[in-house]
Amino acid sequence: MTPSEVWQAALDETMALAKQASRNGRTINVSPEVAALLESVGARTTTEPVGMAAEDSADEQGDPRTADLKALADTVRACQKCGLCETRTQTVFSDGSPYARLVFVGEAPGGDEDRQGVPFVGRAGQLLTDIIVKGMKMNRSDVYICNVLKCRPPENRNPTPAEVEQCEPYLIRQLELIQPKVICALGLYAAQSLLKTTDTVGRLRGKWHTYHGIPLRVTYHPAYLLRNPEDKAKTWADVQEVMKVLDGSVTL
Ligand code: SF4
Predict the structure, then answer these.
(1) Which residues line ligand 1 at a C-beta cut-off of 6 Å?
(2) What's the pTM?
């Protein structure tokens, strides 16, 4: 690489780190010279005493939470614990921020997700994005989105209890690492799998549950809402209750 290419690569990497820190509501410390260069390419910088965020800076450099989640995603990518490994195109681990205060949990990847490797894409995914952006006034990148199962069941059939049992430890570990303030279970199978119940969504929504000590709210799956738009108002009521906990106006 030429010296200018090396410099450009370093600048690109620094910009990527700054964007990641910004998404997580954190900062990185750089020298005044580097700050001036970042500002010249549009970055926003502030002046703080050197050493003020030494602990944060060290943590950010290592970013152990992101590293642990990446290691877990790598483990999932190689997983063959159940038969779904034979029919998947790829595993679907998550989308969003490792530092999210809200985690949405669905049932399992569908066809679009299996092709793209990202949860909640396609029409149902767009509706979930609308709920987050238009309804909750958050960015999709502010929350964390995943499923109980990391591989698509053929023909989108329902997960079997054995598949849920095999795959659930990955979800439990994801939540241990993220430590969200609230979980929102999307749809019947996510709710039933997480809460170990056979109750319907109609009976489970409208009240708080807990999953491994984390408050959990149940609402309808976006795919169900596409078929039953008259129930969108109920989901709106559910996310309002979630928002009250997130903004601190309700303490559980
Ligand atoms: S669904 Fe879960 S347990 Fe089954 S192969 Fe995929 S990652 Fe492994």
Answers:
(1) 76, 79-82, 84-85, 91, 149-151, 163, 166-167
(2) 0.77
